[in-house]
Amino acid sequence: MGRPAPCALLLAAVLLLAGPRAGAPRPRVTANFACRVRADSALLRPRCHQKEQDGAALSPPALALSTARLCQGSRDCQPCVRVRLALHTAGLGSVCGLQLDFLVLGSNRGSWLKVWRRHPEAAGSLWQVQFDCFPVESGRRVLVSLGTVPDRGLSLNQSHLVPAEPAGPEFSYAWHPEARAIEVSVPEGRALTVRLCHQLALECEELSTPFPRQVPVSGGHSIVLPYEFLLPCLCIEASYLHRDSLRTKRCPFQAQPAAYGSELWASMQFHDYSASSEANMVMVLSARCPLHPTATLCWKQSDTGACLSVPNSTAMESNQAYTVEKVDVHPLLCFKFSFGNSSHVECPHRPDTAWNVSVSVRFLQLLLHVTSTVPASFSAALCRRQGSRCEPEAPVYTVTSPESFGPRELTLLLPLQVLGGCVLVWRSDVQFARKQLLCPDVARKRFGLLALGLALALGLLGTVLLMNYRSLQKLATAPRGRRPILLVYSPDSEEHKILVCALADVLRSALGCDVRLDLWEAGSVGRLGALPWLYVQRELVAREQGTVLLLWSQGSTRLYQLWRGAAAGSSGSPDPHDLFGAAMSCLQSELQLGGGAGQLGDWALAYFGELCSRRDVPPALCLLPCYRLPRELPGLARLLQGSARPPAWLRPSTLLHRLLMAEKRKCLQGRVELCRLQQPKGAPLARLPARQVGPSPCAPPARPTSQRPSCT
């Protein structure tokens, strides 16, 4: 083993780092010299003292075993084996220490203990050591062997039988549930001390104040012990009055179903550590019984309603702390704890939420205002109620808040397709989120206006039918179809996007056009990619004889110049995933292949008159039909619908057509007015005036129906 001094230093470091477990009985070693002790993990670190042994000394070499009791204070005693030894090491050479090896027959449980001299150079070769003591069950035989460190060939062996202890005290009990008490009866004979306790892993913990702890009961008498909660770990313990007495413990409610009811959950304390900023739910459980219930998430329809389980939402448990990650923390999103056939719902203790949403109706559109205190993504979808359920319908609209401090305000525009419809809003960047259902009362607010408008429309339609029945019959029987319209724009600002969405909604809802817009097909754009999606839509427009409508702005002029520079090989390189740049590439390739405006019948250009002027349109694009909005909206509508101007003699039909176009122009102008109200102060968007209707002088003749070449 080397020199003794390093051995002692190493042992001292180990003893300083490893402290005894609190509240557990510790073995003890006494010797006739200054000593140090080391033991395996089965024995708590013994303490070593220098002390002359009491009683008659042993004649060396000797190894003596006897039965003793190892106690913690005045209770929880257990039998153990005491070891005494005496040994002369003069004829054994240099001895660093002694080693005791223990083996319990029947269970094959083993352990070892080593004792060193603190000062190896001290004179004297007599080793006298007493070890109190090695714990063992009653009725077991223990083998003990003595050797030297290092091994000098010495071996002393002894065995000892620990006698079986007599049975503990006897008692009987009766449970009185109506009185919430247990009556304990002691038979004739010796007096006992009885108590109620909660059985934990290693000990039985006394009930808290004001419930009695230990009560002496004379033989032939009984006592009633009240309890606070009926729990499966509630036990009755009895012992004799003297110290180190045997104890008898009974736990009668472990198989009692009533012990696993509401009182089990009432005895627990729930500590909520959920955090909306971290998107997780944490609930820490403090229980009187060492139980480990399972926990899942559930939704409550109301504060007093039932809680519906969320699939695949089992919480992770560690030291009775239950955690679920990626959760939109909400007061009605709760933990559901289950143990056996009993369950308990515990909701977050904080009533506030990380975000709120409100809805308003403007010009047959749903305007959602989302306020969030954390950076997050939110989705919304229209739905129609069917009983108590409302299933979302495609498409799904999504908006993401930026990474910034303080509350964030977001806006979502949804088309109102059906009166009486609802909208579902939820946080979409987490795994578990509650969908909020909003149902604006559109029908009651708009019913009067709709009825009046319907009556006027029916009266006007009847007049027109009477004045020119045969001409309107020809128009009604003419073949019509929904041609696709692909909207291409430059993403200048949120105001421009709102105008684009408003125009797209007018074309779809008022004119019945099949509008293709990347903002409405975010799922397809994300799945296919920006350029493949554009090429697919361009081929569809060419095949179905539709129209590619360029919505021009001052930002479009800047992006067009950057695109021209990139195409010419300059240093400015546009984004290769930009839909606007890809559309310009398609247009240029078709100009080169077609050789003039006569081959570009499915391209058109429009701009909002108060955002830019006709001078902002590049000369190369003046070959396209050009319309100023909202002044020239009727002409654009005729182009998109593919219908020629009605003959001049059809005066009633012309009047009806102009009235309908004026109504559509007002609808668009109303949407632009809504966007202007939402715009921050100082922005350039102004009120759009309504002017005369007429086509653009830059528009070419009627477009042909020839097939367009591919731009891929």
UniProtKB/TrEMBL annotation:
Location of the SEFIR domain: 482-638
Localization (cell): Cell membrane; Membrane
GO MF annotations in UniProt: interleukin-17 receptor activity
Topological relation to the membrane, as annotated: Single-pass membrane protein; Single-pass type I membrane protein
PROSITE patterns named among the record's database cross-references: SEFIR
Keyword terms, alphabetized: Cell membrane, Glycoprotein, Inflammatory response, Membrane, Receptor, Signal, Transmembrane, Transmembrane helix
GO biological process: inflammatory response
Gene3D superfamilies: 3.40.50.11530
Signal peptide as annotated in the record: 1-23
Main location: membrane
Coiled coil: none
Domain of life: Eukaryota
Region (Disordered): 686-712
Pfam families: IL17_R_N, SEFIR
GO CC, one annotated term: plasma membrane
TM region(s), chain numbering: 410-426, 447-469
Protein name from the UniProt record: Interleukin-17 receptor E
Species in which this protein is naturally found: Platysternon megacephalum (big-headed turtle)
